[in-house]
């Protein structure tokens, strides 16, 4: 191809200095600064996604004085921070969104549990009416010696505290020699009762 062609004559190239300056990006937007604006800085509240372009020295100065909540009173700041927890999207307490409640009422997806209206579109709580059941404490395992002690006192293994003490006193009065005119024939039974009570007391049942 001939270099004298009209195609080469129509190509224009910027001078080297001008080309170098444009490749540095936008100019610093700080008043009186002619350095390249190589650093972005947010423009502020209600202008999200918009940025100033500063040089490194002026972006540092801008960041030191930047305050996103500038112009807002304390109540407005607290309200903004509270709303930011839900991404500034509207939320409702259960039963407040009447439109959704009406729709749920139509399709029967709400269930009353323990006096509270619960959204239950998949019927997980079907038939669970009345008072909310309280979590039950795990039952302790009754050892063989403890079980025999309950049997000796004629008590169920679920007996506790005052019930055990009351039964113990009743049996002692019945089998104590002083209550039988000095008859010592039930001393063995009395000894078993006292031993059984001591086992249950030591185990923390009473």
Keyword list:
Helix Hairpins, two-stranded antiparallel sheet, 4 strands, rod-shaped, 8% strand, 39% helix
Can you walk me through this structure?
A hairpin with an 8-residue loop joins strand 1 and strand 2 (51-54). The protein has 206 residues and is mostly helical. The longest helix has 16 residues, at 187-202. The chain is built from eight helices and four strands. Among the domains are: 17-65, no CATH class; 144-202, Orthogonal Bundle (Helix Hairpins). It has helices at 6-9, 16-22, 56-65, 74-84, 98-107, 144-152, 162-175, 187-202; strands at residues 39-42, 51-54, 110-113, 116-119. It is rod-shaped and about 140 Å long. Helices cover 39% and strands 8% of the residues.
Separation of the first and last Cα atoms: 111 Å
CATH architecture of the domain at 144-202: Orthogonal Bundle
Q: Bin the strand percentage.
A: 5-15%
Major β-sheet, in short?
2 strands, antiparallel
């Amino acid at each position: 191809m001939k270099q004298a062609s009209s195609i080469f004559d129509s190509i224009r190239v910027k001078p080297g200095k001008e080309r170098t300056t444009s490749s540095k990006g936008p100019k610093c937007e700080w008043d009186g600064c002619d350095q390249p604006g190589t650093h972005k800085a947010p423009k502020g509240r209600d202008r999200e996604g918009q940025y100033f372009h500063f040089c490194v020295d002026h972006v540092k100065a801008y960041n030191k004085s930047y305050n996103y909540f500038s112009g807002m009173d304390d109540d407005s700041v607290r309200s903004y921070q509270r709303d930011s927890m839900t991404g500034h999207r509207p939320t409702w307490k259960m039963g407040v969104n009447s439109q959704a409640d009406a729709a749920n009422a139509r399709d029967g997806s709400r269930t009353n549990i323990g006096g509270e209206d619960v959204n239950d579109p998949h019927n997980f709580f079907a038939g669970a009416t009345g008072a909310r059941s309280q979590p039950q404490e795990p039952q302790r395992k009754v050892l063989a010696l403890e079980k025999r002690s309950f049997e000796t006192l004629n008590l169920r293994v679920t007996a506790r505290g005052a019930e055990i003490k009351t039964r113990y006193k009743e049996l002692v009065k019945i089998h104590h020699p002083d209550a039988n005119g000095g008859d010592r024939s039930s001393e063995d039974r009395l000894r078993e009762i006292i031993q059984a009570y001591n086992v249950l007391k030591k185990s923390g049942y009473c």
